[in-house]
Amino acid sequence: MMAKKKLGLEDLGGFVFSTNDDFDESDYVEDSSQEKLAPEDQELEAHYSNKGRGGKTVTIIKGYQGPEEELISLGKMLKKKCGVGGSTKDGEIIIQGEHRDKIMQILRKEGYKVKRVGG
To answer: Which residues contact 46 (CB under 8 A, 6 or more apart)?
Structure first.
């Protein structure tokens, strides 16, 4: 049986509870639209992992800075070019299988700086 995940205030989705009638939400709302950095200004890391995945190997791309939509589209492109599945979450692109060299080559062609991390 899995333990329940404890929720923190940040998990409430940005709700602000106030009894102040003069409350101005704009003072507290963060600007969630990150600026898109040019690919040559980004330093991505290509990791290899099989921990916590039932022995299945995955390639993880970390270090992307920019809007979530751009990260998702980059992940889709990588999955398509490698012909495998994967996911995009928590600011990381997870590609099924050991495809580090191929992914690094693709990202470099797109203009990203990519560093190989780990074995």
So the answer is: 59, 60, 61, 100, 103, 104, 107, 114, 115, 116, 117
Candidates 3.40.50.2300, 3.40.440.10, 3.40.309.10, 3.30.780.10; correct CATH number of 35-116? 3.30.780.10
| pTM for the structure as a whole | 0.67
Classify residue 72 as exposed, middle or buried by CB count within 10 Å of its CB (0-12, 13-18, 19+): middle
pLDDT in tens, 22-39: 766 666 655 555 566 777
**Cα–Cα distance between 87 and 94 in angstroms, integer?**
5
